[in-house]
Amino acid sequence: MGLKDRMRESCRAAAFEGTVAVIGVVQTLRAEFDIFDVMNKNLRVRGVETGSRAMFERMIQFMEQRAMHPVVESVFGTGQVADAFGRLKQSPFGKVVIDMLTSRGAG
To answer: Given the DSSP bridges, would you call strands 72-77 and 95-99 parallel, antiparallel or unpaired?
Structure first.
């Protein structure tokens, strides 16, 4: 499925007055979608630039210098994916992490 098909599917799947985010430019600079879905549902289509590798490295350096760390609310292993999504559904404050190196985690 190409980007234009993903855009069409995202616009079709979005809720009324929803937002479709285009994150980064991975495949192409052009995507086609049906303007009818955008207008009929009053959708917002928003571009989100992820930045360059140099920008990412500067951010990491900034965070390390200030001892900044993300808030991790809970960690689950790959065998606990359903539990992790269940915890995420409860709207925790911090990040819910799935540790890809373990089959079970500290949940």
So the answer is: parallel
